[in-house]
Amino acid sequence: MRILLVWPRNERAVLSDELSRCEPLPLEYLAGALRAHHDVTIHDLRLDPPLREYAEANEPPDLVGIAVPYTTNVPVSRRASHEAKRLWPNVPVVLGGHHVTVSREWTDGFAADYVIAGEGADPLLTLIGHLERGTPVEPVTGLTPYEARSELRRTVKPEPATLNSLPRPDRSLLARHRNSYFHSLYNPVALVRFSAGCPYQCHFCSLWRITDRRYLVKEAERVVSELEEIEQRNLYVVDDEAFIQPARMLELADAIDQAKLDRRYHMYVRTDTALRRPDVIARWAEIGLDSVLVGAESMTDDELNGYHKGTSARQTREALDLFHSLGVKVRANFIVHPSWDEADFDRLSRTVEELGVDMPSFSVLTPLPGTDLYDEVRDQLVDDDPELFDCYHSLFRTRLPRDRFYDRLARLLVAAGSRGDGEETSDPSVFYYSDNDSFNRMVQAVRSGGFQEPSPPSGGAPLPEPELRR
Ligand code: B12
Ligand code: SF4
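# iron/sulfur cluster complex -> structure
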């Protein structure tokens, strides 16, 4: 079968493609599972031409897969599905990705025939089997006809509890864009996954619910052989929490060391995980851990408890000291609470300075679908537009006047961006930085409480259609 997998482009995203554009790893995983028996194309609308140009130059596909990677991307993914149906009216369209894995909200109005939830490879192979045999697709775990999507269940407990059983991602299909994928100071960058899931239960996070708090791992030998296939030196490890199993991480570090892989890693880690085993972080610093993303979230224990974070403000300070002593840069993310007043914003600015966070980033508390927070507050949200679930908008009433709230948020970014000791350095002092105007445009969008002014597409899908409600 000819299978076309499409990654959408959100030209209005506050965090624009000019500030971070990473390879569509989820589609590379699917391609890895399909490629032995099928002819797979990945079409990245952030870099490739619009679908109509693809259609002019290529044979029609037998199946189109449209990714819905974020809730914010619902409108552009919906638009891409309509474009695919217009170009190839008789070709089935299947949706998949994080948003449809965790939620059925806003899934009306797509031009789709099937929906897949959870790890996509097995359900996609099942679907292809039905299409090849001409047998009807009955709703099963992880796959359903589009009309029956409200019944869709994802696989919550994949068996066996290892990522080794998944095919490795096929990176060859996007060789043409390899040097166009970057993330902050990591340019070019490749995305890798060593584990999935998290045993903690943060109130605002959906990731632990996807695996039912289980932690799925890839064995060291397999990780090393995947890394050996990657040319890029910069590696963004997308694990939800990379260091949960210290013994395994030491084993992996040794295996990477023995293989003499010279790489720079950016990884997610909790403060308490790092403090429990500083030796593991030190070992990873030796083999190339360049920066960590820490969910600092707040500097008050009350707020941290409210988020069910399970860490304390003291641990944040101690962990930052640990990382700095090891020469590991820290991107710390702080949650900006809609109930904040001027003094709270002032306090966060001071905290970021005092802690010496290398690269601070800020997220407005957002009830992302698939979280406990979302389930609790769904009916209290002040807006129902999926594009607003980007962590730069407030879906709650703000204590400060809205204009002032967004102005203070923008000021946090500006202050972070202008930090530094004046020394010549190629590293930014804010995580999403740019050496052109992109960061300023992001700040503008945040300050206005709106979105980016769409720039001329470098390929890309057309503007989102007017929003359809759920
Ligand atoms: C890397 C990453 C990024 C990268 C870029 C990713 C990319 N390739 O472009 C960057 C840093 C740019 C980014 C940005 C954002 N991100 Co982000 N990101 C991630 C992260 C950590 C990993 C994604 C990944 O590669 N996962 C690994 C793959 C293999 O897993 P997978 O998605 O589950 O894929 C499988 C299935 O979903 C399915 N599948 C996937 N696609 C498809 C398509 C089809 C057709 C089918 C059939 C199946 C299928 O099969 C896949 C293979 O088994 C996830 C967290 C996570 N664990 O997923 C957050 C995550 C996706 N991001 C999130 C968010 C909120 C954002 C932002 C909106 C906010 C922000 N302020 O950062 C922005 C949006 C940017 C934009 N321009 O629109 C949320 C999404 C929540 C939501 N409901 O929207 C997540 C889940 C993290 C979280 N906080 O909960 N992100
Ligand atoms: S925010 Fe991080 S630590 Fe908390 S549940 Fe999600 S992945 Fe785990």
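# post-check
The two ends are 33 Å apart (CA to CA).
The chain has a mean pLDDT of 92.
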